Amino acid sequence: MEYFLSIQGEGFHTGTASFFIRIGGCDVGCHWCDVKESWNPEIHPVVSVEEIINKIPAHIDTVVITGGEPSLYNLESLSKILKEKGKKIHLETSGTGNLPLNMDWICLSPKKNEPPKKEFYSVADELKVIVQNKTDLKFAKEQATKTSPKTHLYLQPEWSQREKMLPLIIEFIQENPQWKISLQTHKYLNIP
Ligand code: SF4
User: Fold this and answer.
1) Pocket test residue of 1, 22, 33 for ligand 1, highest count of atoms within 8 A of CB
2) Rounded distance between C-alpha atoms, residue 130 and residue 146, angstroms
3) 146 Cβ partners below 8 Å, 6+ apart?
4) pTM given for the model
5) How many angstroms separate the alpha carbon of residue 20 from the centre of ligand 1?
6) Which residues line ligand 1 (CB under 6 A)?
7) How far is CA 16 from the centre of its chain?
8) Separation CA 86–CA 75 (nearest Å)
9) Alpha-carbon distance 16 to 75, whole Å?
10) What Å distances lie between residue 6 and 31, 57, 97, 104, CA to CA?
């Protein structure tokens, strides 16, 4: 759908200069999704792996593959070339498709309406639960029980509900310090 250089705004790698590859196509259908234009893959022309790779600045180490839902696709040819170029590959996924190989970091963001496939939980480096209402905190706790002890746990307020949800998240994290807060800092910075 698009590729661009920016700064990771969310989760463990917040603040890191990263090249983003956003892959079109997602059938999860979160009503609060902020990239609904990604849902229909038909409206995004096919772009060759070579074209994308050639746009990545040589000095940028981190490539974030996001969507849409990138696990719907076979990412092998893309990830193979990225590894040959010495890049670190970070995947952002809801875990509804196939678990891709060659990822250096997997950020699993489970959604209630279509939970991840079970193989994603044990390999998730980071679990990022979007909190749109109070019941999402219960969902977050349930999801965390399926991850490995090494998984970093993040709660992120859904952008349009952030003023309402932040006090709940702050209280939750004070009581459950294994969790951390993730803010969409790229939105505060007004960058992509
Ligand atoms: S999984 Fe991600 S891309 Fe798909 S609808 Fe939900 S927020 Fe949007």
Assistant:
1) 33
2) 17
3) 118, 121
4) 0.97
5) 16
6) 26, 28-30, 33, 35, 38, 67-69, 94, 111
7) 14
8) 16
9) 23
10) 25, 12, 26, 19
Place of tokens 């849409």: 68
Tokens of 152: 């970093």
Beta strands in 15-168 (DSSP E): 17-23, 62-67, 88-93, 105-108, 126-131, 152-157
Q: Name the residue with the closest Cα to ligand 1, atom 8.
A: 33
Name which residue sits closest to atom 7 of ligand 1, judged by CA: 33
What atom of ligand 1 comes closest to residue 38's alpha carbon? 3
Beta bridge partners of 21: 3, 65
Q: What is the pLDDT along the chain (192 residues), one digit of tens a residue?
A: 999 999 999 999 999 999 999 999 999 999 999 999 999 999 999 999 999 999 999 999 999 999 999 999 999 999 999 999 999 999 999 999 999 999 999 999 999 999 999 999 999 999 999 999 999 999 999 999 999 999 999 999 999 999 999 999 999 999 999 999 999 999 999 999
How far apart (Å, rounded) are the C-alpha atoms in residues 108 and 93?
5
Peptide bond into 95 cis (omega under 30): no
